[in-house]
Sequence to fold (247 residues):
Amino acid sequence: MSDPILRRNFKRVILKLSGEALREPGSEDNISPEIVETMAEQIRLAHQAGIEIGVVVGGGNFWRGVSASNRGMERATADYMGMLATVMNSLALQSMLEDMGVPTRVQTAIEMKNVAEPFIRRVAMRHLELGRVVIFGAGTGNPFFSTDTTAALRASEIGADVILKATKVDGVYDSDPKKNPNAKRYEQVTFQECLEKRLQVLDSTAFSLCNDNNKPIIVFDMMAKDNIRRALIGEPVGTLITAELTN
Fold:
């Protein structure tokens, strides 16, 4: 029998979206409705195909806690502000998906019952089983952790088959492709190789969680046409990171 990750035949996934990707380049608006609509449409099509989808959205289009901390703000406060920014993005994505007829739930790690459910693992899993897209907001609920770590944590908690990390590059390279035109892109790489070669995939905490829990990661270019949908339904895009090579 062939490896299910090699086939990329996913049942349940975590899609990690960058908050900064929701902003139109050069625009003063923090959220582009057109970009959110494009993302939502691709999620809708994958949802129609029967994929159980959890989404983690960053908040960098509004606020970056680390950046504010570097400019003198107290780090925990800056991070909490960043968590609130992720909730705004989660609500924007929810609104667009609901307008398309996709049932959704937003769950937040910081309780705000007037706008979202609190994160409860078994409730989130039940929503997924019932065909609802679950959007996880407010990070882990704790400062000093990134939304990459949120994605790794939620994927482990709900038993997702894979983490799909949507980026602005088409995979993992052995060096920065913007600086090195001869940089090599990996089709597949192991966790161990990433550590040995110091490849920047996720932050160290998130990567350790994925490594320890044997949670595969696919890094792909979300800017390429239809790539979010393709990644969600298991078409081979980007770079696959696993504990062991499968081909």
